[in-house]
Amino acid sequence: VQVVESGGGLVQPGGSLRLSCAASGFTFSSYAMSWYRQAPGKERELVASITSGGGMTNYADSVKGRFTIFRDNAKNTVYLRMNSLKPEDTAVYYCNAAGFQGLEYNDYWGQGTQVTVSS
């Protein structure tokens, strides 16, 4: 199983980034996917999530209206489009896959990608 994030970097306040998370080794289309983030000295928090079929999404209040999560099940990839970035969005962003393979519940994490919002 592999869950690999990419797309992080340094961006100025007000700028945009698009994170990608490529998954393999499990039935991607059967798993809910989420983005979490963890800033220095803070707990990891849920940023956005999307159901296996992509029909429902959920966002943290702090990112509503600025971030969009979407997925391409044909490419086994989930994305996070981040607009109007703020310094407080600075964190390591992690991709998570959660779901059942048969009767077994699985929870997979990527290694994270750093997003820094600074002028």
SSE-based structural type: mainly beta
- What fraction, in percent, of the residue positions are helical? under 10%
What's the overall average pLDDT, rounded?
97
If helices are DSSP runs of H or I spanning 4 or more residues, what is the number of helices?
0
Description:
By secondary structure, the protein is an all-beta fold. Helices cover 0% and strands 55% of the residues. The strands form two sheets. Strands 2, 4, 5, 6, 9, 10 and 11 form a seven-stranded mixed β-sheet that branches. Strands 1-3-8-7 form a four-stranded antiparallel β-sheet, with no helix packed on it. The N and C termini lie far apart (37 Å). The mean pLDDT is 97.
Task: State the gist of this model.
The chain is mainly β. The chain has strands at 2-6, 9-11, 17-24, 32-38, 45-50, 57-59, 67-72, 77-82, 91-101, 104-109, 113-117. The chain starts with a strand and ends with a strand.
Overview features:
single chain, 119 residues, mainly beta, 7-stranded mixed β-sheet, 4-stranded antiparallel β-sheet, 11 strands, 0% helix, 55% strand, globular
What order do the helices and strands come in, and which of them pair?
Elements: E1 2-6, E2 9-11, E3 17-24, E4 32-38, E5 45-50, E6 57-59, E7 67-72, E8 77-82, E9 91-101, E10 104-109, E11 113-117
Parallel strand pairs: 2-11
Antiparallel strand pairs: 1-3, 3-8, 4-5, 4-9, 5-6, 7-8, 9-10, 9-11
